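Thread title: Can someone regenerate the structure for this chain?

I was given the following input by a collaborator and told the matching structure tokens would be attached. They weren't. Posting the sequence so someone can regenerate them.
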Amino acid sequence: MVEDKIILGIDPGTTVLGYGLIHVKGKKLEMLNFGIIQLNKLTNQPDKLKRIFDRIDGLMEEYKPDEMAIEAPFFGKNVQSMLKLGRAQGVAIAAALRRDIPYEEYTPKRIKQSITGNGNASKEQVAAMLQTLLKFEEMPKYLDATDGLAAAVCHHFSGGIGENNKSKVSGWSAFLSQNPDRKVR
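Best answer:
Regenerated them for you:
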């Protein structure tokens, strides 16, 4: 049976969020779309989170992805930035859960490693490799778009197995099976 699926990749952010969609058909990868969700004109966090949810939900409605890959927040020094990034990631995950779309998380290092062979590659190196692999002509103004695309391609190359969910099962069922002592009463 030939594999045929659409993967949505997300590079979460609260100023600029990147996304990319690929179609996997057998061994062939095709880029469907990639871009950004611009959030810098919104001044408060709730408005940003609502915009993220609405736009990702709209992408899911339009492209009907089978799976979602999202970059896991990296541990930086600024706790407030980390919290905001985690909220953006959580809202994107909530959009996937709402539509019963399984998701996986990947560290930035693992995404770079899977695309370029170097976990310390620059955004520009990742974008150039994706441009060669997926044959798109114009490089986007914001490389957050290629970072979103990279998450989707990494997910495909990883066989759909990310950092937190070491199986194809995701969401609450995976959490409960991995933590039987935490059953909801």
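The two ends are 41 Å apart (CA to CA).
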